[in-house]
Design brief:
The complex is a heterodimer of chains A (96) and B (297).
Chain A: H1 10-48, H2 54-58, E1 61-62, E2 67-68, H3 71-95
Chain B: H1 3-40, H2 42-48, H3 51-56, E1 60-61, E2 69-70, H4 73-103, H5 107-122, H6 125-144, H7 152-177, H8 180-188, H9 193-204, H10 206-222, H11 225-230, H12 248-255, H13 264-296
Antiparallel strand pairs in B: 1-2
Helix pairs in contact in B: 1-13, 2-13, 4-7, 4-10, 5-7, 6-7, 7-10, 8-9, 10-13, 12-13
Classes of the chains: A mainly alpha (96), B mainly alpha (297).
Chain lengths: 96, 297
């Protein structure tokens, strides 16, 4: 028995074309979502990089909050995360 | 019977009780918050609130000495317009990305895309507001020749980008919940993958996808910081996407710190809080009932 060759009929050609179109469109949609995100994060990093340094992270603000670092803010955020996790994690895990 | 067995026998009901209390605590906290917010504004709500003016009047003048008005229609219109525009952006992008990631990618590309979308979710809302002010503001002024770039368009785009990760992850879960047998049967009958998606998967995952959209709506309605910074903070009913608006959430955030504790203005803000709570509760409840319907299948 010879192997039958597959001849594409019109509906098959049409549905294959619409499949390529749909996958292409969805890929563009996803790319349009991802690219602005990467652009935003990249732009933030690029604009903010000149101010980043080790001193910035470990010293407090000086000269009336116009110079220096952000250490107190980092400590405050860590406290906030710690306390909310301490309350939320046990209750959340046990409730779920 | 050793002491270890006795301890285990005694400890079991104690642990069960603790877990049960934690389970109920979630319900308790929701009711407690609602009760607290309602109570803080109860005197005003029950005795002096003109419900018709509150819900139907666009005039929000709580600080006027001679003619105090508490009409939130403009604020409701602000929330609705920004949320509507955000959903107009977020639903096609979110569902499209969810379908693409779930059905047309695999392996490391799939994982990479999922991680990147989660990264979108991890950006704090104040950073989004910052992006709205510093990046989108001059862009909108330049592109649309608008007098000011802090408007419905700005807030809508920002909120849309914030809601997309929710729609993508819950939409993906909804699509994953459809059994593979459906896909295999469809492909076996000769359908292409895209035909499988819109003829088989969309009807099957319909309520899960709707729940994803509704949860995105809930997120957009409740967002405060980003809209506070990006929408222009003007109490008016918008006539075009380039008009500035103020949302319910931004009103509470901006004005609560400046009211006298217990005054009518203070309590009116808590009344807005009750309104927001009821709207978000209704949206989330609908979404939850829809998802529960999907899981039963």
């Amino acid at each position: 028995m010879t192997a039958a060759a597959f001849h594409a009929t019109a509906p098959t050609i049409a549905s294959r074309r619409s499949e390529r179109l749909a996958v292409g469109l969805l890929g563009i949609v996803t790319a349009l979502l991802i690219l602005p995100l990467l652009a935003i994060v990249g732009l933030l990093a690029w604009l903010g990089a000149p101010a980043l340094s080790w001193e910035f992270l470990v010293t407090g603000p000086t000269a009336g909050m116009t110079a220096g670092g952000i250490f107190p803010a980092i400590v405050g955020t860590m406290w906030l995360i710690g306390v909310s996790l301490a309350v939320a994690a046990p209750v959340g895990i046990l409730a779920g | 019977m050793g002491w270890r067995t006795r301890l285990a026998r005694l400890g079991e009901p104690v642990i069960e009780a603790v877990i049960r209390v934690c389970g109920f605590s979630a319900i308790f906290f929701v009711f407690a918050i609602f009760f607290f917010v309602f109570n803080a504004g109860s005197d005003f709500i029950l005795h002096r609130l003109d419900l018709k003016q509150f819900l139907l009047s666009p005039e929000w003048y709580p600080t006027s000495v001679s003619h105090v008005r508490y009409g939130t229609l403009a604020l409701i219109a602000g929330t609705a317009s920004v949320t509507g525009l955000a959903m107009l952006i977020a639903v096609p992008f979110g569902l499209g990305t969810a379908v693409f990631i779930s059905e047309f990618t695999s392996g490391s590309l799939k994982e990479g895309l999922k991680i990147t979308v989660e990264l979108l979710a991890a950006i704090p809302s104040v950073v989004w507001g910052f992006i709205g002010i510093s990046l989108m503001n001059p862009l909108i002024i330049k592109l649309f020749h608008a007098p000011i770039g802090l408007n419905v368009l700005n807030g809508g785009i920002i909120l849309g980008l914030m809601s997309v990760p929710i729609i993508v992850s819950i939409g993906e879960d909804a699509l994953k919940a459809v059994p593979d047998a459906h896909r295999e049967a469809s492909i076996a009958l000769g359908a292409t993958r895209w035909q499988t998606v819109y003829k088989v998967l969309f009807p099957a995952a319909r309520s899960g996808l709707l729940a994803a959209v509704l949860l995105g709506v809930g997120r957009a309605i409740g967002e405060t910081m980003a809209v506070l910074m990006a929408t222009g903070h003007a109490v008016q009913i918008p006539h075009s996407p380039l008009d500035s608006v103020r949302t319910l959430t931004a009103t509470i955030a901006a004005e609560l710190g400046e009211t006298a504790h217990g005054s009518d203005h203070y309590q009116a803000l808590f009344a807005i809080g009750v309104l927001l709570f009821l709207i978000t509760f209704a949206v989330n409840l609908t979404a939850d009932l829809l998802v529960r319907g999907v899981r039963k299948q």
